[in-house]
Amino acid sequence: MINVQGISKRYGSIKALNDLDFSINERSCFGLVGPNGAGKSTFMKILVGVIDRFDGDIQVFNQSVKKDQLAVKRCIGYVPQDICLEETLTANDNLTYFGRLYGLSGEHLRNRIRVVLEQIGLSERAHDKISKFSGGMKRRLNIGCAILHEPSVIVLDEPTVGIDPQSRHSIFSLISELKELGSTIIYSSHYMEEVEQICDSVGFIDKGKLVEHGTMKQVLDKHRNAAIFVAKDGMVTEELTAYGDVMQTDAGFFINCADPLSTMGIMIEHFRENGITPERLELSQTRLEDIFFQLTGLRLRDNG
Ligand SMILES: Nc1ncnc2c1ncn2[C@@H]1O[C@H](COP(=O)(O)OP(=O)(O)OP(=O)(O)O)[C@@H](O)[C@H]1O
Fold this sequence. Notes:
One of its GO terms (molecular function) is ATP binding. By secondary structure, the protein is an alpha/beta fold.
């Protein structure tokens, strides 16, 4: 269990984190989501020991990030947001370098490199200089460097920003595999659908505050309600307010109401009588992204 206890952090006058309190279960995948500047990286840097001046504490399997820094660092693998690799070296040499930093050597290090290259799908490219690698391949290698020492906690800060779909898929498979093998994963992202897909629990962070957290099911069940979605060229909000609370988006209108199914029947009747043919009319379930919007008034994509 990872217990976050009253974490606050200031950078001068900026309050980057404001009294965070939550816990993360062992062997789960926790998604930390929030817009740019919400405080995700600051939280992760405190957890992995990169930032050591802050208020509060985090217990990682009963060890304090403040008092047992070295022990905590040993059980964590950190994949920073910015790729941290030596461009002039091969994939194999980069892994050797990071493995040695983690205290691995000899046959054990060589074995670990072999396994990790397999896990990140780069065995065939082990002896190529990484200056020839795509952004996605570098991201995968960046993750590889962080898991060489078989950490029980893996912290990934926005690992899928700006990469190709193949590398994204490969990173998802790797995360599933690491979780199956017993790791606890902490994953920050702007991409809600990713978090919904791979995480068991989630925390929403906005302006340094945790605005919601829980298992994925708890958060979805607590906030989920069916809405009606309708799209038609030229339609305006006023035409729909009789049916419920209307929210306009680029794609169309969401209507929240007590009984969406019956309301949709009434709308269909009205459209038929008046010769209106919408391009889309459907029942829509609230997604994680909508819940974040309800709680903060922010769309993550607009900020990303
Ligand atoms: N070294 C620093 N010095 C001063 N302010 C900082 C520093 N690092 C972060 N901040 C500020 O702290 C706040 C939280 O930043 P942080 O990088 O943790 O957010 P984030 O959610 O990770 O955002 P992003 O997705 O852009 O990385 C922001 O207002 C940021 O400008």
